[in-house]
Amino acid sequence: MKKQTSHTEEGQNCPLTYSLHLKLKKQDEIFGPGIMQLLSNIEEDHSLNSACEKMNMAYSKGWRIIKTAEKQLGFPLLERKIGGVSGGGSELTPKARDLVERFSAFQTKVYHLADQAFQELFPQDQF
C-alpha cells in the first residue's frame, strides 16, 4: 500500500532554494540567457540556422529574436555572409561579442552575490 504524504511532509525533505532570472531591458526584454545562448551557438557554428537547430527553434523565430534585439539595442548583432560556392554564414559583430561577455560577467557577479545573501539570510539549518 502506498503511503500518502502531505505537501508539508514532502517539503520538509527538500532544501530551500531560490530562482533568479536576469534579463536586460529597454522598452521590452531584449537580452537574457536565451538570446545569449543563441549568439554563443552562432559564434560556435557560424550559422544562425545551425544555432536554431541546436535549440530546437525555428529559423524564423531565431531571426525574429535577433532582429528585435538589434532594433532595441540600436546596433547589429550579426555580420551576415550571403551563400555562394563556399556557403553563407553569420558572425557576431564586435559589439555583440562585447555584449555577450558583459552579460556573462554580470550574471556571474549577480549570482555570486545572490548566493552569498541567500546563505546569510536563509541558513539551511533554519528552513
Question: Which structural traits does this protein have?
Answer:
127 residues; mainly alpha; Arc Repressor Mutant, subunit A; two-stranded antiparallel ribbon; two-stranded antiparallel sheet; 5 helices; 10% strand; elongated; disordered N terminus
Global Rg: 21 Å
Q: What's the helix-strand series?
A: HEEHHHEEH
CATH architecture: Orthogonal Bundle
Mean pLDDT: 87
| Helical run tally | 5
Q: Looking across the biggest beta sheet, what order are the strands in?
A: 1-2
CATH superfamily: Winged helix-like DNA-binding domain superfamily/Winged helix DNA-binding domain
Helix content: 40-55%
Which band does the percent of strand residues land in? 5-15%
Beta strands, count:
4
> What is the CATH class name?
Mainly Alpha
Described by strand count, sense and barrel closure, the largest sheet is: 2 strands, antiparallel
Task: Characterise the protein shown here.
13% of the residues are buried. The chain has five helices and four strands. It has a two-stranded antiparallel sheet. Strands 3-4 form a two-stranded antiparallel ribbon. Strand 1 (24-25) and strand 2 form a beta hairpin. It has 127 residues and is mainly alpha-helical. The protein has helices at residues 7-12, 33-45, 48-54, 59-73, 94-121; strands spanning 24-25, 29-31, 78-81, 89-92. The longest helix has 28 residues, at 94-121.
